[in-house]
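worker-03 picked up job from queue 'complexes'. Input manifest follows; two sequence lines, order preserved.
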Amino acid sequence: MLLGACFLALLGLGALGATGRAPRWVFLGSAVASAGLGLVGAIGLPATPLPFGPPWGAAQVAVDALAGWFLVILALAAVPACLFAAASPPPPRAEGAGFPLFLAGMALTLIAADGFTLMLGFELMSLASWALVAARHATGAGRRAARLYLAFAAFSGICLIGAVGLLAAGGGLGFAAMRAAPPEGWRAAAVLALVLLGAGSKAGLVPFHVWLPLAHPAAASPVSALMSGAMVKIALYVMIRLLFDLSGAAQPAWWGLPLLGLGVATALIGALRANLERDTKAILACSTLENMGLMVAALGLALAYRGADLLPLASVALAAALLHALNHAAFKTQLFLSLGAVYSLAGSRDPDRLGGLIHRMPWVAGCAILGALSAAALPPLSGFASEWLLLQALIQGFRASDMSVQLIAAASLAVVGMAVGLAAAAMVRLVGLVFLGRPRTPRVAGAPDATGLMRVALVLPTLLTLVLGPLAAVALGVLDGPIRQVLGPQAAAPRFGLELALGEGGSRYLPGLVALLLALVVGGLVLLVRRRSPREPARGPAWDCGFLPPPPHMPFGDPLSQVSALGLGQPIRRSLGGLAIAPREWLVNQPPGSPAAATLRVEGQDRGFTRLLYPLARARRALSREAEQLRGLSLRFYLGLTFGTLVSLLALVALLERG
Amino acid sequence: MAVLGGLLTQLLHIALMLAVAPLLVGVVRWLKSRLMGRRGPHPMQPWRDLLKLLRKRPVLAEGASLVSRVSPYVALGATVLAAALVPSFAFGMALAPMADLLLIGGLLALARVALALNGHDAGTPFGGLGAAREMTFAVFAEPALMVCVMVFAVLIGGTNLNAIGHGIADGQLGLRVSLIFAAVALAAVALAENARVPVDNPATHLELTMVHEAMLLEASGRHLALWEMQAALKLLVWLGLLATLFLPYGTAAPGSGPFAWGLGLVLWGVKIGLLALALAVFESAIAKMRVFRVPEFLGGALMLALLAAALIFVSTGLA
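worker-03 finished. Artifact:
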């Protein structure tokens, strides 16, 4: 009932949004509807046939433990995003219509209990999000990003339809029928490949990641928050549903290795690019790549351990993926909204035009710093708990009997460690550029803080991040259901009371106690130090290393004496940048005697473009040129072509009839 | 009784770590001066500086925010907690079940991020530069640390520092080549994490070559005292970590009495002293590297750690 009401509400709100009237109510209504969906996710729903559907049978919906977990994640990301959208100036009409439909598409994918409904929801989500990306850009780079996104969305849809078709070939489109006839042999391998291509390109796995850092930032801030916070999780859900649940438990251990390899590669490249980008939202989108990479790597580990009959380790890895999905939804939604508030209130997404916002926007800056620390996986915040589980699952890789798996686990551990370090560096760079230091432009120096509904939208996910850190074990307790559903009744979430623990006597992490002790130690330090030195600090000019003091018309000092976005990325660009992009640096020197400044130029393009998309585009051009030549042929050749086609078709028919 | 002993050793241990940390810095400085033919300051000098700085009022830069005032406490707090987890004279302290190597790495990372944010806060050129370099070094140091943790996990089965130290002290594992590789890798990581030569020069006065000090240019008064204490404690944590992982012999077993503690304390002092001497000799004998060669240095450490892991897979696979 509630589910149906929520869907009807979302569709109605979409229609209302299309009229362009009362946009605020559209978004507030969407917030209520998504909260309702989250409630449905928490309660669950048995398989129910709908009164309508495709010609060959009724569509089915169900909310089991796995879908419920992701519905809750969706709601937790959607409510703050809707509130933020309601607090923003009225959007274009396409956005008002697309936003509720986008939410409905994501929810439909999650509640689907047959292949048709699943694909319907997935395509609705893709199209609505494309419309939302394109809505703000009639021309220019944003439009190009939207087109690229549409191409990748179509590609992922085709691959997933193929995968669902292969799964349905055994019995029927219903999930129960698919489960009853799991794929084997070449069909299983084809399902794996198609899911990796389809859901992988939606989740931004290498080498299909190039669209994500372009499309996610191009949309309006709440839409970006939803795309990074929730939509990529839907791709993750589809992966788990198709590869773990519907393909059966008997799949071999090597199934996990492609996921693991692609996951760690994505994590590394995403984290690396987050250190090189010069757009605040693109930095966050690249960090999404990194986190998706970690989650997919954890899924791969879970598949590999399940195939190797190491069920406790498989549940550790799966718990890492699912818990990180929740944590990432919380802090990434919050970060996108915070940087969206910066964009709308301080007027820029370019970190070289921001700076020192902690003085002008204490609420936004406080929320963003907490979210960034969580994204940097620092204890006792939420990101650390899930990454601790992932690292433990990788470290325990030595328990696999196969030495090649052990070596792969060790190498993956090294890459994941590097990605975690890079993510921390990227978050420090983002916070340092945007919120700390001095303002780089006058406009930033006068920016107002977020107020009212917008502040609520920022504080909600921040509180969630703060709570999820110390109480990670409670979230893991909820995860018992999904883990049992996916891995079988013997599996359990890796926890022991309030601890995250790898079985009896295994490694453990007690986040609540760590938070408490840290608070105690820091509080004690403050008391001790302040007792000995009670005086308030004085203010003085900063040591600017020999620069002349700034003239009076520059009240914030010389902006050029602050490190730029490019400069902060330089050490990482020089040491590792070549892995992700093809960087090129050159110095533009002035002739002797000229007073103009010499400049250092840096350019770089993702290797996904140079290695994958450009060759594809070249091949397409060459092909179309060949096809174009067919138009200039003589009648003789046309008749010959027709005859040849006829003969080969007849030969094919004969061949098929004989076989 | 065991609980009481654990609590007592834990408190004694924290007091010991806090007392010894500045002394260790003084001893390393004194040793380096002697090796270079100078008389050198008294080993207690860092303690005297700290006490003096603690009394002083800090002067904040004009652009500095709350971050400058909060980050020294957070960084020192995280480092104290990490120090509380690394055993010195006895195993089985009250917090021993928490002493997970990944958690210790995470706490040190928290301190590092607080330091980097502090570097960004005043908006000065060298603060940001130092922060970027520090975070870049961590990108290479963290994976090396994690792979070393995996090597120990293969030998002992888990990542708890107490279990690892205890297991190695039992002596059933024997001498393993992979442990030597892991020791070299971790020593390189320790040099980088503590901003020692060849990665950074703790005695430099030239901003361009600074990494760690560049982030502290604006710190003064009690804030500077906290940062100095944090750096000293971090050095002690790393030396203590190396001692616990590779030389855990003589450390009192869980539940043992004051006599064993005393023996463990003496031996711990000897171990830390030897490590300090090794550090001073190494720093005196080698020149600082260019910043852009540090990734190669730490990448070498990572490769050594991976080699150690591969060797241990081979040896456990054959056994």
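worker-03 released lock.
The longest strand of chain B covers residues 59-61.
The mean pLDDT of chain B is 92.
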